[in-house]
Write a structure and sequence with these properties.
By secondary structure, this protein is an all-alpha fold. The protein is built from 13 helices and no strands.
């Protein structure tokens, strides 16, 4: 009993650390795209994190994934290594990070939906009610902000949420058997050849004039957002249960809005806060009717 309690507590701690790290991703990306092209940024962050992930797999002598793991790992890679970073980087050229963070309130719901689709669960009708209401709130927020001023940015953020939700769901399933940090490391390694070549091809002719803040943003999204955050996040999901620890992600919009205001000096309006809170309440309801706890046999590694 004590062991289960300690394991659950460890899962909550690891999950909270992961959410805190991810909360800085959009503000850091906003800083990075001020100096780097979004395509170069996406390739460079994945290549740098991939080299670190490869080194960790070699040092700790991790066995290669099975052949039937390759397709799920490719899904994780396309969702969280390539899709989400690229789409958010492109979006942040059109909208502020404070605006984009409100969309992150849909990420837990997207993860739950893909968990339902991939896991074959049968949620109650209340789940779809909360999911639809949450989506309507986010769309209403975008329209209220003047979607005609930056429709591309909003569309890119919606696409980013979809691919990231799919990547999270696949990663959570794999982490039960492969281990949390191993899943993200293998996904990064899978992309490494392409991302390394893309980094060299997309590299700017000169790095002169790039502000230190842009370099800091690149360093953060490469080391923390792309690798370290997933180490804590997937470990937390495996230790404390996807349903329970996954709800910590609902705090991410609040942490992100605070960072956007404190570090970037962006304006956080009462409407943004109200929209974020309303979406979070909807996601809480949706997750309650959709998620299922891990079994005892699904251990973290």
């Amino acid at each position: 009993m004590m062991r289960d309690t300690n394991r659950a507590a460890s899962g909550w701690i690891n999950g909270l650390i992961g959410v805190l790290i991810f909360s800085g991703s959009l503000p850091a990306t906003r800083l990075a795209v001020a100096g780097f092209d979004p395509l170069f940024l996406t390739a460079a962050r994945a290549a740098l994190a991939g080299l670190l992930g490869l080194a960790a797999l070699i040092v700790f002598r991790q066995p290669r994934p099975r052949r039937d793991d390759l397709a799920p790992l490719a899904t994780v890679a396309l969702g969280v290594v390539i899709g989400f970073p690229l789409l958010t980087a492109l979006a942040l050229r059109h909208i502020t990070s404070a605006h984009s963070i409100v969309f992150i309130g849909l990420l837990p719901m997207a993860t739950a939906i893909f968990g339902v689709l991939r896991g074959g669960e049968r949620p109650r009708p209340a789940f779809w009610l909360f999911s639809g209401l949450g989506s309507a709130l986010v769309i209403g927020f975008a329209l209220g902000q003047g979607v005609t001023a930056a429709p591309i940015g909003d569309a890119l953020m919606f696409a980013a949420i979809i691919v990231c939700g799919l990547g999270y769901a696949e990663g959570a399933r794999l982490s039960r058997r492969l281990g949390g940090w191993q899943v993200i490391s293998w996904a990064l390694v899978l992309c490494l050849p392409v991302m390394a070549v893309a980094t060299l091809l997309l590299m700017p002719p000169s790095f002169a004039g790039i502000a230190p803040s842009a370099w800091a943003g690149l360093a953060y999204v490469s080391l923390f957002s792309m690798l370290i955050g997933f180490v804590f996040w997937y470990r937390g999901l495996a230790q404390g249960g996807i349903a329970a620890v996954g709800q910590l992600q609902l705090l991410q919009p609040f942490f992100g809005l605070a960072l956007a205001a404190g570090l970037l000096g962006e304006t956080v309006t009462p409407q943004m806060l109200a929209s974020t809170l309303a979406v979070i309440l909807c996601v809480v309801g949706a997750r309650r009717f959709a998620a299922a706890p891990l079994t005892r046999g699904e251990n973290a590694r």
